[in-house]
């Protein structure tokens, strides 16, 4: 993760984004987290280290990271947005019971964009694939 953090910091530097201690902590937390946290999760995890930091500070920094291409916002209907610092091509499995999101690998489905464009006339800018079900914690089944 240290290499990812260094790359992210270098990218921010080239876009003129000043690195504050809070910004560094939020980015580090996201890079270390595999849970796809909400802004509130990030705030609660860091508030003891940064007692003067607000939820608005977290949101504002997440917006900077999204605009810089370092973080992806995952929105799911009415629930809070979740944030993912893994910008590689990957997909998500979402638990219908607890909302847990887990990454999984699958070959890129780039032909979906071509097919969608041909059938709809849209200029497709991307896609997102999620599968839904019940996670092992909620079913009581452990992963083997």
Automatic annotation (TrEMBL):
Key words, A-Z: DNA-binding, Repressor, Transcription, Transcription regulation, Zinc
Keyword Glycosyltransferase recorded: no
CDD domains documented for this protein: Fur_like
Gene3D superfamilies the UniProt entry points to: 3.30.1490.190, Winged helix-like DNA-binding domain superfamily/Winged helix DNA-binding domain
Family: Belongs to the Fur family.
Listed PANTHER family: PEROXIDE-RESPONSIVE REPRESSOR PERR (PTHR33202:SF8), ZINC UPTAKE REGULATION PROTEIN (PTHR33202)
Protein name: Peroxide-responsive transcriptional repressor PerR
């Amino acid at each position: 993760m240290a290499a990812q953090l260094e790359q992210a910091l270098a990218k921010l530097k080239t876009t003129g984004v000043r690195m504050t201690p809070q910004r560094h902590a939020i980015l580090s937390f996201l890079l270390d987290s595999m849970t796809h946290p909400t802004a509130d999760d990030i705030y609660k995890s860091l508030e003891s280290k940064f007692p003067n930091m607000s939820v608005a500070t977290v949101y504002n920094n997440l917006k900077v990271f999204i605009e810089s291409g370092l973080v992806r916002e995952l929105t799911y209907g009415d629930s809070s947005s979740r944030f993912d610092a893994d910008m590689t091509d990957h997909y998500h499995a979402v638990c219908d019971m607890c909302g847990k999101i887990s990454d999984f690998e699958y070959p890129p489905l780039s032909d979906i964009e071509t097919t969608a464009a041909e059938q709809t006339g849209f200029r497709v800018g991307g896609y997102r694939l999620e599968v839904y079900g019940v996670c092992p914690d909620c079913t009581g089944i452990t992963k083997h």
